[in-house]
Protein backbone atom coordinates (compact mmCIF):
# COMPACT_ATOMS: atom_id res chain seq x y z
CA UNK A 1 0.00 0.00 0.00
CA UNK A 2 1.22 3.50 -0.82
CA UNK A 3 2.52 5.23 2.35
CA UNK A 4 -0.04 8.06 2.10
CA UNK A 5 -2.92 5.58 1.70
CA UNK A 6 -1.56 3.65 4.69
CA UNK A 7 -1.38 6.91 6.66
CA UNK A 8 -5.00 7.67 5.79
CA UNK A 9 -6.06 4.19 6.91
CA UNK A 10 -4.15 4.57 10.19
CA UNK A 11 -5.69 8.01 10.84
CA UNK A 12 -9.19 6.63 10.28
CA UNK A 13 -8.50 3.82 12.76
CA UNK A 14 -7.06 6.23 15.37
CA UNK A 15 -9.67 8.99 15.02
CA UNK A 16 -12.83 7.04 14.34
CA UNK A 17 -12.06 3.44 15.29
CA UNK A 18 -12.92 2.22 11.80
CA UNK A 19 -11.06 -0.05 9.47
CA UNK A 20 -10.74 1.35 5.96
CA UNK A 21 -10.72 -1.06 3.03
CA UNK A 22 -8.34 0.80 0.71
CA UNK A 23 -8.37 -0.20 -2.96
CA UNK A 24 -5.45 0.94 -5.11
CA UNK A 25 -5.49 1.07 -8.90
CA UNK A 26 -2.45 1.40 -11.17
CA UNK A 27 -4.58 3.19 -13.75
CA UNK A 28 -5.39 5.88 -11.18
CA UNK A 29 -8.54 7.34 -9.68
CA UNK A 30 -7.72 11.04 -10.04
CA UNK A 31 -11.05 11.99 -11.64
CA UNK A 32 -14.51 10.72 -10.77
CA UNK A 33 -14.73 9.01 -14.17
CA UNK A 34 -11.35 7.33 -13.64
CA UNK A 35 -12.40 6.14 -10.19
CA UNK A 36 -15.74 4.79 -11.43
CA UNK A 37 -14.03 2.93 -14.27
CA UNK A 38 -11.45 1.42 -11.90
CA UNK A 39 -14.00 0.41 -9.26
CA UNK A 40 -16.69 -0.68 -11.70
CA UNK A 41 -19.43 1.54 -10.32
CA UNK A 42 -21.54 4.43 -11.57
CA UNK A 43 -19.74 7.78 -11.60
CA UNK A 44 -22.53 9.10 -9.35
CA UNK A 45 -21.23 6.78 -6.58
CA UNK A 46 -17.88 8.55 -6.44
CA UNK A 47 -17.74 10.90 -3.45
CA UNK A 48 -15.35 13.56 -4.70
CA UNK A 49 -13.80 15.94 -2.16
CA UNK A 50 -13.67 19.40 -3.70
CA UNK A 51 -11.74 21.91 -1.61
CA UNK A 52 -12.86 25.52 -1.85
CA UNK A 53 -12.17 28.71 0.06
CA UNK A 54 -14.95 30.98 1.25
CA UNK A 55 -14.70 34.73 1.64
CA UNK A 56 -16.93 36.74 3.93
CA UNK A 57 -18.26 33.65 5.71
CA UNK A 58 -20.14 34.54 8.91
CA UNK A 59 -18.40 33.12 11.96
CA UNK A 60 -18.96 33.33 15.71
CA UNK A 61 -15.67 31.69 16.74
CA UNK A 62 -13.32 34.37 15.39
CA UNK A 63 -14.48 37.68 16.93
CA UNK A 64 -11.11 39.33 16.28
CA UNK A 65 -11.98 39.58 12.61
CA UNK A 66 -13.84 42.72 11.68
CA UNK A 67 -17.56 42.20 11.48
CA UNK A 68 -17.36 38.53 12.50
CA UNK A 69 -16.64 37.45 8.92
CA UNK A 70 -13.82 35.13 7.89
CA UNK A 71 -11.97 35.43 4.59
CA UNK A 72 -10.17 32.72 2.72
CA UNK A 73 -11.61 29.94 4.91
CA UNK A 74 -11.29 26.41 3.50
CA UNK A 75 -14.33 24.19 3.12
CA UNK A 76 -14.63 20.66 1.74
CA UNK A 77 -17.55 19.87 -0.53
CA UNK A 78 -18.13 16.12 -0.85
CA UNK A 79 -20.08 15.74 -4.05
CA UNK A 80 -21.27 13.00 -6.35
CA UNK A 81 -18.92 12.49 -9.28
CA UNK A 82 -21.93 13.00 -11.55
CA UNK A 83 -22.53 16.51 -10.24
CA UNK A 84 -20.81 19.83 -10.74
CA UNK A 85 -20.47 21.99 -7.64
CA UNK A 86 -22.02 25.43 -8.05
CA UNK A 87 -20.00 28.15 -6.35
CA UNK A 88 -23.00 30.43 -5.79
CA UNK A 89 -25.01 27.64 -4.18
CA UNK A 90 -22.11 26.72 -1.90
CA UNK A 91 -21.56 30.38 -0.93
CA UNK A 92 -25.25 30.68 -0.07
CA UNK A 93 -25.15 27.50 2.05
CA UNK A 94 -22.13 28.84 3.96
CA UNK A 95 -23.44 32.38 4.31
CA UNK A 96 -20.34 33.56 2.44
CA UNK A 97 -19.93 36.38 -0.04
CA UNK A 98 -18.16 34.06 -2.48
CA UNK A 99 -16.29 30.78 -2.83
CA UNK A 100 -13.60 29.66 -5.21
CA UNK A 101 -11.42 26.62 -5.75
CA UNK A 102 -8.55 26.32 -3.29
CA UNK A 103 -5.03 26.16 -4.64
CA UNK A 104 -2.86 23.08 -4.20
CA UNK A 105 -0.59 24.66 -1.58
CA UNK A 106 -3.53 25.75 0.61
CA UNK A 107 -5.04 22.27 0.39
CA UNK A 108 -1.80 20.63 1.52
CA UNK A 109 -1.27 23.20 4.31
CA UNK A 110 -4.79 22.95 5.74
CA UNK A 111 -5.89 19.41 5.05
CA UNK A 112 -2.57 17.60 4.74
CA UNK A 113 -3.47 15.93 1.45
CA UNK A 114 -2.79 16.63 -2.23
CA UNK A 115 -5.25 17.33 -5.02
CA UNK A 116 -6.57 14.11 -6.54
CA UNK A 117 -6.32 12.20 -3.28
CA UNK A 118 -8.10 14.41 -0.72
CA UNK A 119 -10.27 12.19 1.48
CA UNK A 120 -13.51 13.53 2.96
CA UNK A 121 -12.26 12.78 6.51
CA UNK A 122 -8.96 12.74 8.43
CA UNK A 123 -7.86 16.28 7.67
CA UNK A 124 -5.04 18.02 9.54
CA UNK A 125 -7.37 20.87 10.52
CA UNK A 126 -11.09 20.91 11.20
CA UNK A 127 -12.95 22.57 8.34
CA UNK A 128 -16.64 22.79 7.42
CA UNK A 129 -17.80 19.93 5.20
CA UNK A 130 -20.83 20.08 2.92
CA UNK A 131 -22.22 16.73 1.79
CA UNK A 132 -24.04 16.40 -1.54
CA UNK A 133 -27.51 15.10 -0.72
CA UNK A 134 -27.60 12.96 -3.89
CA UNK A 135 -24.94 10.63 -2.42
CA UNK A 136 -27.49 9.41 0.13
CA UNK A 137 -29.34 7.51 -2.62
CA UNK A 138 -26.61 4.84 -2.72
CA UNK A 139 -25.80 1.94 -0.42
CA UNK A 140 -22.10 2.46 -1.02
CA UNK A 141 -20.01 5.36 -2.26
CA UNK A 142 -16.30 5.46 -3.03
CA UNK A 143 -14.04 8.23 -1.74
CA UNK A 144 -10.36 9.15 -2.08
CA UNK A 145 -8.01 7.46 0.35
CA UNK A 146 -5.05 9.84 0.38
CA UNK A 147 -3.55 9.37 -3.10
CA UNK A 148 -4.72 9.76 -6.72
CA UNK A 149 -4.62 5.95 -7.00
CA UNK A 150 -6.55 4.91 -3.87
CA UNK A 151 -10.23 4.87 -2.90
CA UNK A 152 -12.35 3.23 -0.21
CA UNK A 153 -15.99 2.11 -0.07
CA UNK A 154 -18.29 3.39 2.65
CA UNK A 155 -21.96 3.82 3.46
CA UNK A 156 -22.78 7.45 2.60
CA UNK A 157 -24.65 8.03 5.86
CA UNK A 158 -21.66 6.83 7.83
CA UNK A 159 -19.34 9.03 5.78
CA UNK A 160 -21.56 12.05 6.37
CA UNK A 161 -21.51 11.32 10.10
CA UNK A 162 -17.73 10.83 10.28
CA UNK A 163 -17.11 14.05 8.34
CA UNK A 164 -19.52 15.93 10.64
CA UNK A 165 -20.95 17.21 7.37
CA UNK A 166 -23.99 19.25 6.51
CA UNK A 167 -26.16 17.49 3.92
CA UNK A 168 -27.42 19.86 1.27
CA UNK A 169 -27.75 20.58 -2.43
CA UNK A 170 -24.39 21.79 -3.76
CA UNK A 171 -25.39 22.10 -7.42
CA UNK A 172 -27.14 24.86 -9.35
Task: Describe it.
- The protein has 172 residues and is α/β, with parallel strands linked by helices.
- Helices cover 26% and strands 26% of the residues.
- It has helices at residues 3-16, 32-39, 87-94, 104-111, 156-162; strands spanning 23-24, 46-55, 57-58, 69-70, 73-80, 98-101, 129-132, 141-144, 150-154, 166-168.
- Strands 1, 2, 5, 6, 7, 8, 9 and 10 form an eight-stranded mixed sheet that branches. A two-stranded antiparallel sheet has the order 3-4.
- β8 (141-144) and β9 form a beta hairpin.
- It is globular and about 40 Å long.
- It starts with a helix and ends with a strand.
- The model is unreliable at 62-69 (pLDDT under 50).
Major sheet: size, sense and barrel closure? 8 strands, mixed
Beta strand count: 10
Shape: globular
The ordered H/E elements are HEHEEEEHEHEEEHE
β-strand amount? 25-35%
Measured between the Cα atoms of the first and last residue, the distance is 38 Å
| Integer-rounded radius of gyration | 15 Å
Number of helix segments? 5
What is the average of the pLDDT values? 90
Descriptive tags:
172 residues, eight-stranded mixed beta sheet, alpha/beta, two-stranded antiparallel sheet, 26% helix, 26% strand
Amino acid sequence: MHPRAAEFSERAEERYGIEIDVHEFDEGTKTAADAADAVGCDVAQIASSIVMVADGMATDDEPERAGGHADDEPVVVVTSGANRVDETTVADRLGAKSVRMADAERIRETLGWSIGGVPPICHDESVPVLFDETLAAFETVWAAAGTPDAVFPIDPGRLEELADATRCDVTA
